[in-house]
UniProtKB/TrEMBL annotation:
One of its GO terms (molecular function) is DNA binding. The modification 4-aspartylphosphate is found at residue 54. Transmembrane segments: none annotated. Residues 143-208 form the HTH luxR-type domain. Gene3D superfamilies: 3.40.50.2300. SMART domains: HTH_LUXR (SM00421), REC (SM00448). This is DNA-binding response regulator. Keywords: DNA-binding, Phosphoprotein, Transcription, Transcription regulation. It holds the Pfam family GerE. Residues 3-119 form the Response regulatory domain.
Length: 227
């Protein structure tokens, strides 16, 4: 039996999934949530085997939620089920630790099989995602400077994380909403192959030289806050 927790901001989607999965005796939905806050409050107590979650949520995103959940429960399995099929989102999810990524037009039997596979410890990565991931990893390995994968604005964000600022404080500095900052932090962590915000803060704090943007502007002098 695979115990499942659903995270999607649309109630009709959650109820549809519960009805769909209930016909399989090997699957059991033990909880649901419509937001990051609800998921973080309920999942630790219920201890599901697999969390099926959407990428886009009203108070954050599923990729960052996946990373946070796995940092607390490493044996948990996350399966992204979303209408967003971009390569970037897929790679971000994989780098965050998701065991699989499927789009919402998947057939019911295929979804049930995917959940079982993830629950048994297998990873779901189609050929396109595998090729894109290998290209990204090869590119990262070829970079002599790990900061070269970051945009100017992401370098500013990294610096502010290193200063210990909260998302709200960063948003005030960069004229962004707190929710937008959370999304950009998630993207930055994925680009740098880091699992937690603390890793990024430690990395930024350890820099013993000016961080240059495109070989010209150091991080201290960057004042381009518009995205």
């Amino acid at each position: 039996m695979v115990n499942i927790f659903l995270v999607d901001d649309h109630e009709v989607v959650r109820h549809g999934l519960i009805e769909l999965l209930s016909v399989d005796p090997e699957l059991k939905v033990i909880g649901e949530a419509g937001s990051v806050a609800q998921a973080m409050a309920r999942i630790p107590a219920l201890k599901p085997d697999v969390v099926v979650l959407d990428v886009r949520l009203p108070d954050g995103n599923g990729i960052e939620l996946c990373r946070d959940l796995l940092s607390r429960q490493p044996d948990l399995r996350c399966l992204m089920l979303t209408s967003c099929s971009s390569d970037e989102a897929m790679l971000d999810a994989i780098l965050a630790g998701a065991s699989g990524y499927v789009v919402k037009d998947i057939k019911g039997m295929e979804l049930a099989r995917a959940i079982k596979d993830v629950g048994e410890g297998r990873s779901l990565l189609d050929n396109r995602a595998a090729a894109a991931l290998m290209t990204k990893l090869r590119g990262a390995a070829e970079q002599s400077d790990p900061l070269s994968v970051l945009t100017d604005q992401e370098r500013v964000l990294l610096k502010l994380i290193g200063e210990g600022l909260t998302n709200k404080q960063i948003g005030d500095r960069m004229f962004l909403s707190e929710k937008t900052v959370k999304n950009y932090v998630s993207r930055l962590l994925a680009k740098m192959g880091m699992a937690t915000r603390t890793q990024a803060a430690v990395f930024a704090a350890k820099l013993d030289r000016p961080v240059r943007s495109n070989g010209e502007t150091n991080l201290e002098s960057l004042c381009i806050y518009g995205w």
